[in-house]
Amino acid sequence: MPTVSETRIAPTPTPSQTIALDVTGMKCAGCVKAVERQLAGQPGVHSVRVNFATEVAALEYDPDRVNPDELAAKLSAAGFPTQIRQGDDLQDAYRAQDERQRQEIRAGVTRVCLAGVPILLSGLGHLGILEALSNMWFHWALATAAIAFPAREIAIDGWQSLRRNRPNMNSLVTLGAVSAYGASCIALWFPSLGWECFFDEPVMLLGFILLGRTLESLARRRAARSMRSLVALQPRTARLVFPEENDDRLEIGQTAIDIPAARVRVGEYLQVLPGETIPADGEIAIGKTTADESMLTGESVPVLKQVGDPVTGGTINQSGAILVRVTRTGAETTLARIVAAVEDAQTRKAPVQQLADTVAGYFTYGVISVALLTFLFWSVAGTQIWPHVLDPSAVASYPLAMGGDLVHAMAHSTSPLLLSLKLAIAVLVIACPCSLGLATPTAILVGTGVGAERGLLLRGGDILERVATVDTVIFDKTGTLTTGRPQVTDCLSARPEYDDRALLQLGATVESGTTHPLAQAIACAARERDLSLLPAADFHTEAGSGVRATILLGRRFANDGVTVCLGTGEWLERHGVEIPEEWRARAAKLANEGKTVVAIAGDRDFLGLMAARDRLRDEARSTVDRCRALGLQVMLLTGDRPETARAIASELAIPPECIFAGVRPGEKAEAIARVQGNGRRVAMVGDGINDAPALARADVGIALHSGTEVAVETAGIVLVRDDLGDVIESIQLSRATFAKIRQNLVWAFGYNAIGIPIAAGVLLPSFGILLGPSAAAALMAFSSVSVVTNSLLLRYWRS
């Protein structure tokens, strides 16, 4: 009996999905590392990116193995309250995030006010205005109230983080404040020890910390203003128009109903009145108006829009009532894709941040260790080596002795144990993992937001870092340096039985099977002469070389079914077409005039030449000149003939050795690689499908937004305004943003590298400089605020 074989078909793997999580409760860079480890450790999670400044985690995962709700629950249980961001309505997501930030700031202001009361009363007590305020038990009550009420959340979170073996900034602050409070309590309860009570230290410490956090929250919210403004442009409602009963005609002013903009569908018609925001991407079906596209391009000059012209959701209809046929909705609209691109950029870290991340992972443990070593050193050996640090009368002899609280602290620190404890507390409090965590994301947050406002999409920190090292810019020619809309200038027939009209008709018919700019130019020229296309079939395109088709009814041929080829002379010769020497010379002469030349043949018989010229963009020359002014070498890359490329390059003062001409689409990436092989860091500027491999191969790809989808998706920088001059803007903004990142990191590392040793008492023996816990807290708060403020200065950047 024959057996039946069974074929097992392997299931098609489910593609990865991405999701955004709103993660709160992160207090420092150490928290960021903890969140990343928690998420990355889950089976099925492919990649995790966490942004401290925006409190967002971007997650790529396998939907068959990962349940996002369970991930959010686990992260919440670990001390980081987490919600899944719902992407259906961008405005709702950002409104919820903004409301959380508002509540956080309001709560912070309340806590600062509550903390200010003990600080004020403590200060009055030291001034001796009221005798009751000078009582030490009163100061004990103030310190107890400060820890129990305004600083309660800090203390609880700090203790829980220690208990979970994931100490963070709150852990350091809690250890410092509780240590100072505990030592003062012992001094109060056991006066025979002769210790000093310094209840004002934890009060001042916690007050400065709360004030710094509130200022930091305000600055972070302001840093995200660009994104909120961008998202808020999307209208909430749309006015849907539909035909009257028994009437298929559509008119402005007929029956319309208001519906949520999120429910608009492709193909529907929307009525938009003057002054209203266009709800979705589409094209004008009826009417004429001007549109304010400043949200998209950064330019406030109104743009004329007529029937058939595209309009973008989020732009403002200014002057006329129009009817818009919807072409894209939801996540596919230009505005939504810009927001998504900027969101993605804000979670992509610069490689330079890796050092800060590595340090942050162990920072808190290191600070606790340094504080412990400081305490042991000064309590055991330090005061033995330098006994004069315990002598108040020696303070005046220090060359750099500081007045005020520092001298006051020295004058009463006669106990080695108490001095050691103060120094250890100062080490705990002055250390600032926050500044390390905020250094990169705040600069990227502001830089990408400013770019989006000005029509520049910067894809992330890694792109910014690469732009900073670029020394060469390679421009594609067609559609990049030129307008991409060539016009036919010459149509020369080599056969007496053909005139230029017949040759143009053949060329337009063959080119109807492709969308190359030259094909569009030939088709346009044929339409202008009222030449109809001939019946044709078997279209074939060889990118960068030519096109071929079979003409079914060739009026001027002996038989039907003639194969007509149109392309470069070299391509035709490879297909057996012989081009006379005289016509080679003519082709060379046209190419030297900066024209793109193609030859046409029928059944391997040479028929003639066609030439088109694409004019340079108005801003091409100034852009190239400004690139040189930035110290960048400029090169030209094109598939056109060398003669044509040299003619264009001469107008831009690009030397012959910087021209890559006759490069096939598949070879453009190889040309980029050769330049990189010479030690150059390359930025490639292009717009077409054939530019995509080169854009990906370059260190930085820059694409014009009017280019093909694949080019835009491949590039690291997208120029939304389609203005070539924005190449300079994008490079300068990228450099400015990366400069801020470096400044922030230098400040963060430098602050901790200098502040911690000073707090540990390095300057105490020689200069008498003792940093009290409250002064250390003030400096720590200042470090975080200064990093965010430095990033905010990018908002005032100008090219």
Keywords:
799 residues, alpha+beta, 6-stranded antiparallel beta sheet, 28 helices, 49% helix, elongated, disordered N terminus
Q: Could you describe the 3D structure shown?
A:
The N and C termini lie far apart (83 Å). Helix 24 (692-697) links the parallel strand 24 and strand 25. It contains 28 helices and 26 strands. Helix 4 (136-148) packs antiparallel against helix 6 (169-189), helix 13 packs antiparallel against helix 26 (726-759) and helix 20 packs parallel to helix 22. A seven-stranded mixed sheet has the order 14-26-25-24-15-22-23, with helices on both faces. Strands 6-5-7-13-8-11 form a six-stranded antiparallel sheet, with no helix packed on it. It has a six-stranded antiparallel sheet with strand order 16-21-20-19-18-17. With 799 residues, the chain is of the alpha+beta class. The longest helix is centred in the N-terminal third of the chain and has 38 residues, at 90-127.
Quick structural gist:
Helix 10 packs antiparallel against helix 14. 49% of the residues lie in helices and 16% in strands.
What is the first-to-last residue Cα distance? Answer: 83 Å
Nearest-integer average pLDDT: 81
Q: List the strand order in the largest sheet.
A: 14-26-25-24-15-22-23
Share of helix among residues?
40-55%
By DSSP (H or I, 4+ residues per run), the number of helices equals 28
Strand % is: 15-25%
What Rg, in angstroms, do the CA atoms define?
A: 35 Å
Oligomer, anyone? single chain
Form type: elongated
User: What structural class do helix, strand and pairing data support?
Assistant: alpha+beta
Main sheet?
7 strands, mixed
Low-confidence stretches: 1-12, 395-413, 554-558
Question: What is the number of E strands?
Answer: 26
